[in-house]
Amino acid sequence: xxxxxxxxxxxxxxxxxxxxxxxxxxxxxxxxxxxxxxxxxxxxxxxxxxxxxxxxxxxxxxxxxxxxxxxxxxxxxxxxxxxxxxxxxxxxxxxxxxxxxxxxxxxxxxxxxxxxxxxxxxxxxxxxxxxxxxxxxx
Length: 138
Hints:
The chain has a two-stranded antiparallel ribbon. A hairpin with a 2-residue loop joins strand 1 and strand 2 (7-8). By secondary structure, it is an all-alpha fold. Helix content is 70%, strand content 3%. It has helices spanning 13-16, 21-25, 32-38, 42-69, 72-88, 95-107, 114-135; strands at residues 3-4, 7-8.
């Protein structure tokens, strides 16, 4: 387990219990919306996947930095930018943490679960990126 300023790369113990076996064995993303929008153009899909792989860690790093600086409004704004990619890529495991981070930013009022949401965002994004790299041979 690596840790960066209190934000762990591993799934918090209380969340491991919530992951069913079927969730662990299913795809971590769903490109059906992207395929529909692109009309099956795999070169377009591949370019979007590459962009997601490159930009998502940058967004998460920025979210983490804004959190550490206490800039919760800006943290929420960055999470909002990331939300678009998460929805386009059909990454359902990232929807709850990103929405929670956005709401904290809008309200400028951090709660006790914020660090957990950031840790989950980071962890599950790494898993999705790993799968995308494997599946798209990147």
